């Protein structure tokens, strides 16, 4: 049974994405969860002397501003939790002071590092110890880049905290690392349930940087007096939720079946399913799948896909040239373009860095001997069709790894506002897509807070609450023959790359 308290529970979810942040309120009346946005702000990196940084102090200021906008007359806040993107971190000195703004995962300092790490320790050994897919910006690669260049902060640092753990530290003074984000670092051993000491030692990364690991739902304490004073006397508990935003998003997937896959769709797309134990097989390694922590000790077997970043970069590029589209207008342009003209691999490393995206995409088509998209609509269509084809590729291999067919694909996150993307995903994957909720990370963040407060007894009960509280839309697949024929061509593009 869901909690039946007569006085509404109220919490705050801070959801930091790679392009924007939100402060959300959550009110639970014993039957439904109502989520509202009180503050949204831009998350824009800063390039300084050749290094790309997150503007962490700006983000912290905006978080406090958002908290301060919550109306006192609406009732007291019980708790707050922060979730964000993974892999990035901040370093604190012995006095607990931040040594510098965290470096952005798209910074070029890790170029070539993943290959050097692989020469030092075989990939098979790293995967066996961590279960994490190989990406050039993993925390392991970022720290290895610091070690290679002799960056002084690596020696000066006393503590490493992931981005949401940094915010929890700023608010409470507590230094801990939450499980779901710890698992993304490629430095956590899921079999032993602790940091991989052999890996840290072989890469010459100081062990003392790493704190204790806590599960989602851990209450960290109350606000520091100075923070409470800055917020006009507000005081509430801070809960370490599923701090990896995808971990929170998956917690809010409104499914009661175990034969489903999820697609968290935003700047990044993450497609996977939940498993009880990490999948560490040679096949999982060869497909470059990853095992990230979830709520209640589960693991999320998934694959990162470049996602809407490609479209966002094209849109920013055109805006710098004075051409402005709304997202709806952008997708409407695709209706004028021929379908299945050309494909790219969205996960080609050449598309990772910002700038000049449309030119790189056209050049990729040219090199692979395909027609070059010659209009804005054709370019957007090429990217979107390639993206949903990659969803199908990942879903097919996910089913292979777990040995069962996924009856439905639950699609959550901001990307579900793109109806054409949702329909094309259903068409490409050949199965129903259930879209919703949009604010999945925020909803999952609040569900874990409710679990910590004993208002919700379990994750399954929390998902039932999500199903009652948020609208969903089902997209049925159509035109499967044309998509199947196009998928064969897409696979040839992947193989040629």
From TrEMBL:
CDD domains: ASKHA_NBD_FGGY_RhaB-like. GO terms for biological process: glycerol metabolic process; rhamnose catabolic process. Keywords: ATP-binding, Disulfide bond, Kinase, Nucleotide-binding, Rhamnose metabolism, Transferase. InterPro entries: ATPase_NBD, FGGY_C, FGGY_N, Rhamnulokinase. Residues 261-453 form the Carbohydrate kinase FGGY C-terminal domain. The keyword ATP-binding applies. Belongs to the FGGY kinase family. This is Rhamnulokinase. It comes from Paludifilum halophilum.
